[in-house]
Amino acid sequence: MVKVHDKIFKPYISATEIDSLISALANQINTDYAGKKPLFVAILNGSFMFASDLVKKIDLPCELSFVKFSSYEGTESTGEINELIGFDNDIAGKDIVILEDIVDTGQTLEKVLNILESMDASSVKIATLLLKPAIFNKNYPVDYVGKNIPNRFVIGFGLDYDQLGRNYGEIFQIQEEKDSMLNIVLFGPPGAGKGTQAERLVEKYELFHLSTGDVFRSNIKGETELGVLAKSYMDKGQLVPDEVTIKLLISEVEKHPEAKGFIFDGFPRTEPQAAALDEILAERNTGISMMLGLDVEEEELKSRLLKRAETSGRADDADPEVIQKRIDVYKAETAPVKGFYAAQDKFIKINGLGSFQEITDRLFEAIEAVK
Asked: What are the Cα distances from residue 191, in Å, to 70, 163, 201, 244, 317?
């Protein structure tokens, strides 16, 4: 952690990752501009570190120049260009690559583009180390992006907070006040009693229960745009792409802005889904609080499902082969997601044996320890 002025910032992107991101950008630019002599136009003050490290990795004859704008006050972009140092190079017929440390609203870049286009450049493209897609609201493309980040203020590697913090060799993200939302990923194999426990968690903590299956069924029945799209894949026997599944769930999240938190049931099932969920929640200044995994021995699961078949009317509860396949699929899907949250120190294994109330008490105890 570092303190700059009155704000606390936490480590976000290491120097090693920054170097890797810049190397990838340089490789792409080297390929795209082979046989040309690009002119790199770096926007000061923030991009001086990025521009320096990037140009070192460019294996082409190139030029480097600078322009300067100022549009930040504190940690908020004013959206207005307050200062401009004129650009007087002769760029007619040249291939320009604008270098930015970070692109958020895109206001600054729009001004630069307008100036360069009026000077008859042969081509103008944009390369940025960081992009905030949640607030980027311009129609022009950002051609080279090192990393997409959520809409949180960052410093370091040229980025500043009221002129301080540029000198750090890594990037730090502002430490927000502790998120008050309680967001739980609830996992349990078939027969673990996950549905019943979810109901108890919803009741006690006033959470909103998001079940992947329920969301799909609701959208398909309501013939929403995403529901129709999801059904088109399902009708072909194909898996619904992560992008569609995530959009369906997030649309449900946004319907309940008053919720104190969410229980994600049956999602995420893969590491990419978990990473995407983290990014989307971060853009809303929240995140996953914990993953609760109900742990029940396989033979006990089979016994419970066969017993449940007597009242559930579900054929898959009564067929031992189907039961085994469902358990195997759960194990295969859960293992990588468990590792994802364990790496964040958010995975909590819950003993799923005993009475419903005993299991409920264990879940409550685990949640209270983290809240």
From this structure: 59, 57, 18, 28, 9
Whether 103 contacts 136, CB under 8 Å: yes
> What's the CA gap between 290 and 111, in Å, rounded?
44
Percent of the chain residues topping a pLDDT of 70: 91
Query: Is 308 known to be catalytic?
Result: yes
Q: Per DSSP, what are the bridge partners of residue 155? A: 172
Indicate which residue of 7, 94, 132, 326 is catalytic: 326
CA distances from 105 to 12, 78, 116, 128 (A): 21, 10, 19, 13
With 0-12 CB in 10 A as exposed, 13-18 as middle and 19+ as buried, what is 38? buried
Instruction: Say whether pLDDT at 224 is over 90.
Output: no
Entry pTM: 0.52
Q: Which of 314, 325, 331, 371 is catalytic?
A: 314
Segment 83-113, tens digit of pLDDT: 446 555 678 889 999 999 999 888 778 878 8
* Residue for token pair 């967001």: 183
Given 7, 94, 269, 304, the catalytic residue: 269
Q: Where are the domains of the chain?
A: 2-174, 182-212+259-370
- Look at residue 101 in the predicted model and tell me its pLDDT: 95
Find out if CATH 3.40.50.2000 is the number for domain 182-212+259-370.
no
pLDDT tens digits for range 352-367: 888 889 999 999 999 9
Spatial distance between the Cα atoms of 62 and 71, rounded to a whole number of angstroms: 28
**One fold for 2-174 and 182-212+259-370:** yes
326 is catalytic: yes
Of 7, 194, 304, 362, which is the active-site residue?
A: 194
Tell me the percentage of the chain whose pLDDT exceeds 90: 36
Q: Pick the catalytic residue: 308, 338, 346, 349?
A: 308
Choose which CATH entry (3.20.20.70, 2.170.16.10, 3.30.70.100, 3.40.50.2020) describes domain 2-174: 3.40.50.2020
- Alpha carbon distance 268, 192 (integer Å): 18
